[in-house]
């Protein structure tokens, strides 16, 4: 199953709005017979790729799948039925499919006399498929907030300079995050100070994310901005009462969407609704402290990826601005899921604690 989780990750950035799924098939003697993953939306599912690779060796074998085999006919046929017809004798899947139209594959397998059990490495499989699962369960895209900061939490120096706090290796890793996302979002502050490009450097055109500029007052984006080149499609989000963005001629289509305001600026829920309607399931938030604070205040941060450089600045903006947190009791507490060295920097990944986790954490601290 762990191999299936690894295979599933290969589909990140190319399967949306579908899930990433991996499948490994062992033959009747328990030897590897075939494997596969869902490579692109509309293409064969992971089970089909694995069954094709296994051929006749699948008969009497065992399938390990990261997501419950689908039970419906869409652009492809039902995988539960494909496993039955191939003569698979047993199926283990990590996570039950929560979508009403696809769920029930496990029951179909069991009704056909094929034992099917759920839960093996469910945590790892859920983490790898977090974007799709969040979109199904919450009806909005999954949001990863990425930031790069000095060891004392500054994202820029006192004079505003910020290139480059982190190492070339860390910056290359960010391009991987972009390639795995459906959309990359920045705000007006980043547009003005950095003129970001937001494409995933070194990755093909078909995995380039939608570039989203949150320009509430329609005054930050200028003609000739790098985000308006032909590298990827661009969406400019402005307030309903704002003027028309002066973007000038662009090499790629640039769409403007008008959204309501709230206390923090542009409405984050409205922005996420607009992105969801466009098929976006995974958002990488690269905006500065103010936009990050707006997302945090809206409860719309599902994962944090922080790159900490062994640098001390002592002054300058911090990574997160006002997030509506006035007391320590209201702090957004996180559970660290990974810490790894990238170049000279430390990459820390964390997710918000669930409702059941704070008490357990407090107990451990006592």
Descriptive key words:
16 strands, alpha/beta, 9-stranded mixed sheet, 26% helix
Question: Could you explain how this protein is built, in words?
Answer:
The protein has 366 residues and is an alpha/beta fold. Helix content is 26%, strand content 24%. The chain is built from eleven helices and 16 strands. The protein has helices spanning 2-8, 46-54, 79-85, 105-111, 122-128, 130-138, 168-180, 188-194, 268-277, 289-297, 357-365; strands at 22-26, 32-37, 62-67, 90-95, 116-118, 142-150, 183-187, 210-214, 234-239, 254-259, 261-262, 265-266, 282-285, 303-309, 334-342, 345-352. The protein has a nine-stranded mixed β-sheet, sandwiched between helices. A five-stranded mixed β-sheet has the order 2-1-3-4-5. A two-stranded antiparallel sheet has the order 11-12.
Topology:
Layout lengths: L1 H7 L13 E5 L5 E6 L8 H9 L7 E6 L11 H7 L4 E6 L9 H7 L4 E3 L3 H7 L1 H9 L3 E9 L17 H13 L2 E5 H7 L15 E5 L19 E6 L14 E6 L1 E2 L2 E2 L1 H10 L4 E4 L3 H9 L5 E7 L24 E9 L2 E8 L4 H9 L1
Parallel strand pairs: 3-4, 4-5, 6-13, 6-14, 7-8, 7-13, 8-9, 9-10
Antiparallel strand pairs: 1-2, 1-3, 11-12, 14-16, 15-16
Helix pairs in contact: 3-4
